[in-house]
Amino acid sequence: MLVDCHAHLDFEEFEKDFPGFIRRQEESGVKAIIANGVNPESNKKVLVLAEQYKIIKPALGAYPTDMLKLNSQEYPGALKFIEKNKDKIVAIGEVGLDFSEQTSDNDINKSIQIFRDILRLVKKIGKPVIIHSRKAEEKVFEILEHERMDETKKVVLHCFCGKKKLVRLGKERGYYFTVPTNIGRNQQTRMIAEIIPLSHVLTETDSPYLHPDKTKFPNEPRNVAVTIKELAIIKKMDAEEVSQNVFMNYQRLFL
User: Fold this and answer.
1) Which residues of 73-94 are buried (b: 16+ CB within 10 A; e: fewer)?
2) Quick check: 137 and 160 in contact, CB under 8 A?
3) Most CB within 10 Å of its CB: which of 16, 35, 49, 175?
4) What CATH number does the domain located at 2-254 have?
5) Partners of 32 in beta bridges
């Protein structure tokens, strides 16, 4: 019972034979794939894919750098589109901050305000939020606290790269952490898997990125099986038991 809680399926790498791609995932035991949108165009594609394939669960997002490209009319429209489709989605994501790409003070301040706006929308519609926080982990935690997001019990930190003290703080606040398929070659990911209790662990691929073998591309949701095996070793549990627990986490949070 495999579940990929963060994937990007609207990429050209999958377009050539999308039915075949989906069939491979189903035959490998994948029960659900949360397809994350990143901008208005991507969000529309995610909804279409979810209507066509039962295995795909839509999450509508507002990726930080994509949101900066929207003008004063497009930005409110993007948020309204998410709210309008709230009953069709399982989460809002991918959203957050990225200080590796946003370098000017103006862009950083604008992104912070956008992130706050999105979190307020998250609370308004009562959905989980899937958060990107590259090079901005401390600021993300600060904003989550200010917006009292820990009270929602629905915060998911995707591919988190923050320091151990923040991982421990996230544990205290009850945040969920996604563990990607590059866990076998990433000490940061292993550290998170060791600290966070299995009750708050989810599996992801970030497809088409983060293949277990860094020489290969694209990644696919079925590769979360690699994460399950590594988690089983870390948690000293049977892989099937780990898989069932992660799937229950997915059900509790998103369904």
Assistant:
1) eebeebbebbeebeeebbbbbb
2) yes
3) 35
4) 3.20.20.140
5) 3
Is the Cβ–Cβ distance between 99 and 136 less than 8 Å? Answer: yes
Query: Can you tell me the mean pLDDT for 75-93?
Result: 98
SS (H, E, C) the chain: CEEEEEECCCCHHHHCCHHHHHHHHHHCCEEEEEEECCCHHHHHHHHHHHHHCCCEEEEECCCHHHHHCCCCCHHHHHHHHHHHCCCCCCEEEEEECCCCCCCCHHHHHHHHHHHHHHHHHHHHHCCCEEEECCCCHHHHHHHHHHCCHHHHCCEEECCCCCCHHHHHHHHHHCCEEEECCCHHHCHHHHHHHHHCCHHHEEECCCCCCCCCCCCCCCCCHHHHHHHHHHHHHHHCCCHHHHHHHHHHHHHHHHC
Tell me the domain boundaries of the chain.
2-254
Residue 249 has pLDDT above 80, yes or no: yes
Here the tokens at position 200 are: 């708050």
Q: How far is residue 146 from each of residues 79, 115, 221, measured CA to CA in Å? A: 21, 12, 34
- Structure confidence at residue 254 (pLDDT): 98
Asked if pLDDT for residue 103 goes beyond 80, the answer is no
Average pLDDT, integer, range 151-165: 97
pTM over 0.85: yes
Residue 236 and residue 225: Cα distance in Å, rounded? 16
